[in-house]
Amino acid sequence: MSNTPARTLLLAVAALALSSATALAGAPMGKGQAGFFRMKVGDFEVTALSDGTADLPMDQLLSKTTPDKVKKALAAAFLKAPTETSVNGFLVNTGSKLVLIDTGAATLFGPTLGKLVASLKAAGYQPEQIDEIYVTHMHADHVGGLAAGDKPVFINATVRAGKAEGEFWLSQANMDKAPDTMKDFFKGAMASLKPYVSANKYKPIEGADVELVPGIHALATPGHTPGHTIYAVESKGEKMVFGGDLMHVAAVQFADPSVTIQFDSNPKAAAPERKKLYADAAAKGYFLAFSHVSFPGIGHVRKAGAGYEWVPVNYTNK
Asked: Looking at the predicted structure, is the pLDDT value of residue 1 above 50?
């Protein structure tokens, strides 16, 4: 009888320990992902920034193919339609300049996007630190992050884009004659650029190959949009080209670069620009970075039969 209180106490302690372990095992699941990935290109540092993802009906959006072919290619990559599609921006730290390439969608493309500024801050930067913003083109998911209402998000930045791009999307006359399905594209571009235009901080890029800051060139690649521009970064013999929307669906458009998308304003011009970039990158071995390849959107291409294959960047913690 004298051992009963001790035995009771031991059983109580064991029960408490078991209940605590059970409670810990029931922790809520985490949500979301880390929004940045860093790597070096020579002396430059490139940080991929996630704006989030959007589900897109790629079987219906891709052209010069068929829905069945698209679904088959997606299935081979363990994907389906609608396809969860990354929206990526990129920060280049040259050592003397902070250059942001595209700004994400903010509120212009649905609730699953608009995370680029949060990703930027998670990477250790603040919007006011950005010196220059290079826009590949003025679709909503690339310029929406420039403004919050009528205020600039990047208060100290100068915005650059191809001259033909601004002349097209910032034209009221062009918007007036555009079909109703396109008018929101114009409205988004105008609202996003307005704070910078008003402050004389929007400076169009004139020329087919222009050095904007030491080590970064703007290369005109019209087709997806009238002034679509890609950006080449080179340092210490290493190179990365930011290809914007020269491609959208890795599972389809690497193997068959002739496939276009309904968002292309001039598909006949867009496809050759894509093929030209792939061929050059495969031959010379430099990195490519794309807005809509699965985050971080950085890798190499290599020739594979009549097309190419994508080799994602190796993870680095350096």
From this structure: no
